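Quarterly update from the structural biology core.
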Amino acid sequence: MAKASLHPLALLLLGLPFLAFADDVPVMTDVDVTKLAGKWYPVKTMKAGSDPIEIYAFTLEPTADGSMITNVEIPKDGACTIKKITGTKKSPGVFVSSDGEATIMDTDYKTYLFTHLSTGNLRILELYGRKKKVSKKIKKKFKALVKKVGLKPARRLKVRKKGP
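Predicted structure, tokenized:
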């Protein structure tokens, strides 16, 4: 099991330490939710502090109104529980639920997805892949994005040890 977050939005309930981000988090405004559909695996995450949080694989389902349903796969005691989170489209590339807000920062739909998750004082950047591993080029692109939003190098990029 990976140490990092419960996944988009659900992890936001954890009340972790405040993260200082630049005010201008990039948003991919031309997101095609239907192309995001399918399975995504956690690869890397960035947050302030060193406290680990859980990140799990998830499956996205688009809705007719351009919103999405996230089915988070939470392994427990040898079984897998699915937590369903409905993200309503707030604006292009930004989705909200009772758990917080998820921003699609960048994706090529085929190999990687960069997200910014927030609620209250918690901010997390995550890299997900269609497979459990992504290329060095994508990791480098994520690292550059992390730097762009103003995170300090000492707290950048926690590597996922194991996958669901």
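The longest helix spans residues 136-148.
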